[in-house]
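Rotation project, supervised by the postdoc (A.L.). Task for the rotation student: set up a whole-complex structure prediction and record inputs and outputs verbatim in this book. Inputs entered:
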Amino acid sequence: MKKIIEVQHLSKIFGEHEVLKDIDFSVSKGEVVCIIGSSGSGKSTLLRCINLLEKPSGGQILYNGENILDDKHDTRTYRTKLGMVFQQFNLFNNHDVLSNCMIGQIKVLKRSKAEAREVAMKYLKVVGMEQFINAKPRQLSGGQKQRVAIARALSMEPDVMLFDEPTSALDPEMVGEVLKVMRELAESGLTMLVVTHEMGFAREVADRVVFMDKGVIAEEGTPEQIFNNPTQERTREFLKRTLQQN
Amino acid sequence: MELNVIIKTISKYWPMFIRGAGVTLVISIIGTIIGFIIGLIIGVIRTIPMPEKGFKRILLKIVNATLAVYIEVFRGTPMIVQAMVIYYGSKQAFNIDMTPLFAGIFIVSINTGAYMAEIVRGGIVSIDKGQFEAAYAIGMSHVQTMVNVVLPQAIRNILPAIGNEFVINIKDTSVLNVISVTELFFQTKSVAGNNFKYFETFFIASAIYLVMTFTVTRILRFIERKMDGPENYIIYANQMQVETPEDALRREQLMKGNK
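Outputs recorded:
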């Protein structure tokens, strides 16, 4: 399978603290990859390095074989190919739901208003938020906001969707509606990279699970391997801890 | 204080008061607007993320330093002194002849700009980092992010502070009488110099100032409420799509009842 994103020897240092150490990792087309691990293991930082919200301290990130850390590479065009969903939703508070999904298309992709509206409506229907097109973000619940945020990212028609703990800021009863949307997206063949604490979701939906610990990839494999036969002691311990809580 | 003196003063000199109030309003409105625009531009420049190396970094540092000097100088000196320096100073040193009105607007604008720059910067800094990140993540540039996402929210947040500046400007244009701008204070002084009724004449002036500032604060409060909109969202369209069986039953019963 063709590799869309290839991370090679990636490192990230905040001051004295080395958050990511020599990460090698890739995502292929159509694949759903879940990154799990305890807080502070560097999962979110890895995701944020991939779309350059954090500048990597060393290593390379290849997108379709091109090094995006090269100075000549256009960061903004590259970012439009990646859809990002944040833990805190980060919907544009001054825009309504429809406009949240249109603004990027109009300003960045230079689509016409009519086309942008059509695309936005298509994806708002996918996430089931088409009735709320005129609502402002503060009028929505957390789960609704996150679904709109997913529609906003999809409206840019990206090659890869990045999810940074999309359900961690939600009330338990709203987690389901967001996971349901994500599951449908995974089934539609979208390439997805998901940082998550939802072990059930990772086990059922992921093609591949990556376990991160203290800034390195400790283990990766199919959900079957990771959840049922982890080879590493620390993977076993982490799973024991988290699965007990659930 | 005698009421008939007040009435007499108003009936005799009202055109002077009106003209003075008009000039005061013109200077403070234009000054506040231009100052706000200056503040917006400086605020955006001062929040550009610093590039890590190269020519752009040096350029941005120079620009930032220059703007910092501008802000410090105009915030740190009294407007009455600035007025003297700019109006008479430019005439003597550079032979630039400005009309007092133009000089007045110019001084109020750049003075307000220095304050507004800091107000706008505060407004931008107060916006959640996530708003920037979300905008950058869909490929927006710094300017696009500012114009489409951050500034509309920042401006809403700093509207009370802008109102403050406006009110201060209405009152502080009175210092422009030192460069003989014919604003309200200057006119009042002329009237009082004619009738020697200082108390009554300046009492009228204070009433006019109060009416102007009060009106402005009310208008701005109204704009704030307009911008906020309603707290809750009601689905007006597509009601049938979200109708539960119970709703449908109730609707049918209602329709029967109406017949």
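Student's summary: DSSP finds nine helices and no strands in chain B.
Supervisor addendum: The two ends of chain B are 72 Å apart (CA to CA).
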